[in-house]
């Protein structure tokens, strides 16, 4: 079977789904940046990339060296490409302005450059998450700096979303709005090769993912639901469930895309002023777009995540996503 590389897949998409050439080029550049990040991640202690900086990001989190390095790789790769009006990152307080010496484009790129940071130093899978929006209005006339408001669009306006997972294999999972495709990095070829066509999330599941250590801090609907999962066959759900928690959203979502499951990061009382831990614009939205394109569902417990009208670039949101049957059940408990 002839191997379909990411480049060939994107060209075929251009023909069959009218994927604009500048979007195709943007995805190619992001994929190349993820290859470079994968290379740095795989160096580990040999590359001096483990451990933390003595800096905090806008989230108030201590930055890992790889958080900062991955962010720089994505900025440098994408700023000159002529496809972007601006970029936004988990690691940067404000949007990144495309330098005046480079041509601007009509897309906005948002990313979590290194997801699962707490796993970097213990050699567990981490990843990169990205989301692509169109810049509203006529971006080419944007001479002054691009404000945060240009990015504040609901997830339904995404034109593409994807993630790279740096695990035993490095993979790129991508949607352009016509299903979800998985590409595996062939390090000898130096290209991502199409290995998973039209990934689908099974409607039902017997596996859930949540950080159980927060159990005493959850609200009643989540407590009720997880107790029913743990009650198994003898409980109201009438079946036994398995549990996983990798503490890398990318890895948990990838497992769900591969064999089904439910991922939850609900609000909890540890920091009651925060709606949740995960960020809407560059974690929940891209992952929800991917999950819905694969036949799953994603809510914040009350509404579809993709419908949320953002109010700030780094806003957080509760996340329930994966197999539709379980997302609908736990969301229903929030209405009760
Ligand atoms: O450590 P916790 O509280 O279980 O949270 C794990 C979650 O936090 C995250 O690591 C947050 O993402 P970052 O690592 O990009 O900050 C998710 O990937 C993961 O699902
Ligand atoms: Mg993250
Ligand atoms: Mg991160």
Automatic annotation (TrEMBL):
Chief place where the protein resides: cytoplasm
Domain of life (superkingdom): Bacteria
Pathway per the UniProt entry: Carbohydrate biosynthesis
Binding site for substrate: 115-118, 211, 277
Domain Fructose-1-6-bisphosphatase class 1 C-terminal, residue spans: 201-334
Binding residues for Mg(2+) 1: 90, 112, 114
Names of the cofactor(s): Mg(2+)
Reaction catalysed by this enzyme: beta-D-fructose 1,6-bisphosphate + H2O = beta-D-fructose 6-phosphate + phosphate
Cofactor note (record): Binds 2 magnesium ions per subunit.
Annotated EC: 3.1.3.11
GO biological process, one term: sucrose biosynthetic process
Keywords: Carbohydrate metabolism, Cytoplasm, Hydrolase, Magnesium, Metal-binding
Pfam families, alphabetized: FBPase, FBPase_C
GO cellular component: cytosol
Every Fructose-1-6-bisphosphatase class I N-terminal domain range: 5-197
Assigned protein family: Belongs to the FBPase class 1 family.
Assembly and oligomerization: Homotetramer.
The protein's name: Fructose-1,6-bisphosphatase class 1
Source organism (scientific name): Stutzerimonas degradans
Gene: fbp
């Amino acid at each position: 079977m002839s191997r379909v590389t990411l480049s060939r897949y994107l060209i075929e998409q251009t023909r069959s789904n009218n994927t604009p050439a500048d979007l195709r080029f943007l995805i190619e550049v992001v994929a190349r940046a993820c290859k470079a990040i994968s290379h740095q991640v795989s160096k580990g202690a040999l590359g001096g990339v483990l451990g933390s900086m003595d800096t905090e990001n806008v989230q108030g989190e201590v930055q890992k060296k790889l958080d900062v390095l991955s962010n720089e790789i994505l900025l440098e790769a994408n700023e000159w490409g002529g496809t972007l009006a601006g970029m936004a990152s988990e690691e940067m307080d404000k949007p990144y302005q495309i330098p005046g010496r480079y041509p601007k484009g009509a897309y906005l790129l948002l990313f979590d450059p290194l997801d699962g940071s707490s796993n970097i130093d213990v050699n567990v899978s981490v990843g990169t998450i990205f989301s692509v929006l169109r810049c509203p209005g006529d971006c080419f006339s944007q001479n002054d700096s691009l404000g945060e408001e240009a990015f504040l669009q609901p997830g339904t306006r995404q034109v593409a979303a994807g993630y790279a997972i740096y695990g035993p294999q490095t993979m790129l999972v991508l949607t352009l709005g016509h299903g979800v495709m998985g590409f595996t990095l062939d390090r000898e070829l130096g290209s991502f090769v199409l290995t998973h066509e039209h990934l689908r999330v099974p409607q039902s599941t017997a596996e859930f993912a949540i950080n159980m250590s927060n159990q005493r801090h959850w609200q009643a609907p989540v407590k009720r639901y997880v107790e029913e999962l743990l009650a198994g066959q003898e409980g109201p759900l009438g079946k036994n469930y398995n549990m996983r928690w990798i503490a890398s959203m990318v890895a948990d979502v990838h497992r769900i895309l591969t064999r089904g499951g439910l991922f939850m990061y609900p609000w909890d009382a540890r920091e009651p002023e925060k709606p949740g831990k995960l960020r809407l614009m560059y974690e929940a939205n891209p992952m929800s777009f991917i999950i819905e394109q694969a036949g799953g569902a994603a809510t914040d417990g009350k509404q579809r995540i993709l419908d949320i009208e953002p109010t700030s670039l780094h806003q957080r949101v509760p996340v329930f996503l994966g197999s539709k049957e379980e997302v609908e059940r736990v969301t229903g408990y929030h209405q009760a």
